[in-house]
Amino acid sequence: MTPAASSTNPGSGDTQARCVFEDDVPDLVRNTAVNLLDQWHFLPGERDIRFSILPGGANNINLVLRHDDGKWALKIREPDASFAGTSVTAAIEAQAMAASFGLAPAVIAKCLPEGHFMSEFVEGETLRPQHIRHPSMAPRIVDTLKQLHAHHFSPRKFDIFDDLRGFMAGAAKLGGSYPTSYAALWEIAQRFESILAGANAPVGFGHNDLVPQNFIACSDSVKMVDFDYAGEALLAIDLASVTSQAEMSDDETTTFLRLYDPNLDRNQIARVQVLRFVNALREVAWAAMAEPFMAAKTTLLDGWSYRSHADVNIRLAEALIRENPADELASKAGFVRPGALF
Fold it and tell me: Which InterPro entries does UniProt cross-reference here (predicted)?
């Protein structure tokens, strides 16, 4: 790590002098980080605080702060972070609430309305699809989800169809591109919307963006990060997101869902399949919107790109609707038996 030259900012001289950044941290991010630490009076111990970029994040830049006395994560929001349909205030509230249940990193400090915040740094393994598909991981993830879903989150309600439409509008505005089959698949998705709206399926505190990298496997638990889309929602959305984004087969999905609800029925499976399909289209639309806006600003995980993410998800959507005819799914997904957990 090479210490960077000091950047001009209105923070105190002491704060600025003690902040050491890796070379790839942009000047604007350095200035914001210094100002935030100064505002929060965050100067632990006597030694320098060292900053590096943490891969991941689409409408923010994540930094790791290291100091002899500890390690923290600092999320710095883009000025127009809400372009992605997020509520930065609700996101911080949701993470803080989840942390109170032991399901997320604790929020240490925040800056509103900008949405910057600092949390504890959770040591563990950032999961990828193959990790989630491993039989030993599924019970741990199900336990985490059931704990979250047992609560309610009133500050925000989440509708996956409204979210998808928002991404599509953003992509249209920014000139994003879609795979050729997307338009036909979106027409099918709209047929499912009224069915789910009238189903009266269980709702609760949902994360609503459970791509694998938003899970951290710790020594004694699995924690979640990035609560940007958290809100009161259909519980089946999280189950659809996990199983879809982990690229589970139908058999793997059924096994996972039965861990969540031992009395799993075919209507629950159909409801999750519908939402897997809708969520895959949501991920495609998000990538179409985010790539032209964020590609030059985001530090990506190794082997991941916006285009590859869109390609994976369009294939998921195509395969799902090919193997599960839309009429058949629609006839089952809207029926909710008494006592169904999702």
Answer: Kinase-like_dom_sf (IPR011009)
Separation in Å, CA 150 to CA 28, 141, 158: 41, 14, 16
Nearest to 230 by CA among 331, 125, 160, 175: 160
CA separation for the pair 208, 225 (Å, rounded): 11
Output the CA torsion sign for 190, 232, 249, 211. positive
Alpha-carbon distance of 9 to 31, in angstroms, equals 6
Q: Domain 125-333, what fold? A: Aminoglycoside 3'-phosphotransferase; Chain: A, domain 2 (3.90.1200)
Query: Which among 49, 44, 62, 71 has a CA at the least distance from the CA of 3?
Result: 49
Distance CA 274, CA 335 (A): 13
Q: What does pTM read for this prediction? A: 0.88
Question: Residue 231: how many CA atoms within 13 Å on its side-chain side?
Answer: 16
Q: What is the CA radius of gyration of the chain?
A: 21
SS3 label, residue 240:
helix
* Structure token digits, residue 147: 């704990």
Question: 341: which residues sit within 8 A by CB, 6+ positions away?
Answer: 202, 235, 260, 261, 263
| 115 closest CA partner among 231, 226, 8, 31 | 226
pLDDT at position 8, please?
36
Q: The tokens of 25 are what?
A: 């941290």
At 99-148, the pLDDT tens digits run 999 999 999 999 999 999 999 999 999 999 999 999 999 999 999 999 99
- In eight-state DSSP terms, residue 330 is H
- Parse the chain into domains and list their residue ranges: 13-120, 125-333
Q: What are phi and psi of 300, to 5 degrees?
A: -85, 155
Report how far Cα 208 is from the mean position of its chain's Cα atoms: 7
Quote the CA–CA distance of 334 and 316 in Å, as a whole number: 22
- Encoded tokens for 208: 């609503």
Q: Mind listing the pLDDT tens digit for each residue in 314-328?
A: 999 999 999 999 999
Buried b (16+ CB within 10 A) or exposed e, 52-63: bbbebbbbbbbb
